Amino acid sequence: MDFPDPHYISHDGLSLATYALGPQDGPPILLVHGWPELAYSWKNTMGPLAEAGYRVIAYDLRGFGQSSAPKDGPSNGARHYGIANQVSDLEAVMDAYGIDRAVICGHDWGGIIVWHAARMLEARVSGVISICTPHVGQSPVDPIQIFKKRHGDEHYFAHFTERPGVADALFARDPDAFFRLMFRTTPKGSTPKPGQASIPQKFKAFLDAGAPDLKGKILTDADHAVYVNAYAQSGFHGGIGLYRNSSANWELTRGLNQSVRQPCLMLCPEDDVFLPPNFSDGMEALVPDLTRVIIPDCGHWAMWEQSGAINRAILAWLETA
Predict the structure, then answer these.
(1) How far is CA 133 from the centre of its chain?
(2) In this structure, which of 137, 193, 226, 251 has its CB flanked by the most CB atoms within 10 Å?
(3) Whether this model's pTM surpasses 0.90
């Protein structure tokens, strides 16, 4: 099934590109992508869910793909990309499609967004699915300080936050090379390694080495080109803006209830070295109605690497949630 054409909605002075499949009266499910991704990351998921009778809606987050990517001042528009903006956009998509309540499904940063939306829009969220990203309690201190203490100043959360515009410009030098470096399988048995999250540093070294061919390609040339062309158009500042709001998000949500009361599905790719399955251990303390599924032979880019297993797990859970 081809990826649907965009339908644009207006919200907060922006244009958001949305993509819908499935019967209009089907149970609604919203798909929220992460970084560095697009709504297109759900290409292999939207069709099977729609064919099963669900109304499936994905959208490019603000700053990504065909959606508006506001950028102003020396901060590259970071103020536009806080968690309140993201949850407001999700609600605006629901409103535009006449949806009162929906299951919301997120991957990577999309997982962070749906865990917040489940609490900030509790009455409108009937269930939550997260791929890779666990729900965690409020950290006792600013999360950027935690990342710096554990991993140093080159950890990408810290780098993005403390060096405005540097990574944005670096990645934009060669989007083709960036996605060839990022979108690869994880060798079986891999474990987290020191420096693996120093993404700007790793990408600069890759460019300096001539951006050589790498093993583990997960995208076809045509799918790869979709990402390259989209980021050449939008730039990288919007996605990086998500990370640059980590401290502000922490401050904003300090009083937010930490418990998620809806039925939830946590899908943990077995070989994800960025968000390993053990990061979701103990989630039941905050998410009482939790189903947790390990996806074998799968790394972080789960919807490309093991789309069949992801789709089967989602559909099985939707039937019982």
Answers:
(1) 9
(2) 226
(3) yes
